[in-house]
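Lab channel / #folding
Pinned by the channel admin:
"Please post every new chain as: sequence first, then the structure tokens as a reply. Keep commentary short and put observations after the output so the thread stays searchable."

First post following the new format, from NK:
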Amino acid sequence: MSANDTTTEKIMLAHGAGGALMQDLLGSVIIKGITNRSAGSIGLDQMDDGATITLGNKLDDGELVVTTDSHAIKPLFFPKSDIGRLAIAGTVNDLAMMGARPIALTNAMIIEEGFSIVDLKQIMRSIDAATTETDVPIITGDTKVMEQGALDKLVVNTTGIGIATNGTITDQVLKIGDKIIITGTIGDHGTALLAFREGFSFTTELVSDVAPLWKMIEPALAIGGITAMKDPTRGGVAGALNEMASKSNTGIRISEEMIPVKEAVHTASGMLGIDPLEVANEGKAIIGVTPDRADEVLDTIRASRYGRDAEVVGEVVAEYTGKVVLETTIGGKRYVEAPVADPVPRVC
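Reply from TO:
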């Protein structure tokens, strides 16, 4: 067998973690294996948070946007949230990142035989509360039960449909001079889950940031000037910014001093050996906005329930094409690399 023989290659957990390994798998195997990849102006090739469907030319009130996501989080319940809220928030946020108002969701569940009905009822309450908060109905779904040992208790798949009234937003059209806004403290979700899994306790409680963001994003879109958006889930802020820089063929410079990080997350990440920049978030957005609208967009985000800690953390630059550079608090600079894999797997 030659050194280049790939017949024995297998899927690893890291292939689903949102880093470089996952991007390689998507490009070389998953997407490469599909020939019909577009039904509108944004298709599978763009690898965005969703895609568009063109009916005729456009719908009367905007372009149709569709996204889908599967959730295999471990554990199913974590501080102040669970897989149900995560599933709804994640799908709503993927639509929001493309500038689309959520209008309907589907919900499919694959359940292991022996799963607790009490736990399932709690998850359904969380799903219902999240859809009520966002004013979006679940209109269809599917439920399957598999034998014990066939999967890890419960997997939830949600698909979202939305309308981009004023045109879609992508993650790949940043322009030189655009300001980069992060809508709140980073690393909350992944750090809280890892600490919970490992049994760590801290004087300040670590909780996930899981939240549906449409009602924060909608008024920000109305201001205008937003050029690109992405939610920093798997791969964290580091992965999302690198993807945005690479796709838009620009550089991004960010300031360590301006990046909002809770003290509890900073302390816990140091103890756990992880970088908050690389950890998944489930209630934050990265927004590129023209400099003339940046202050107004920031004020609008800060006025919302989930955007109070938002900051302008950097800008898009002509240097460092396709790269992200961090200006450190001690006056140095370093490249922020996209993680090979999320340091906290199975978080979404």
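NK: The longest strand covers residues 101-112.
TO: also worth noting, Confidence is low (pLDDT under 50) at residues 1-6.
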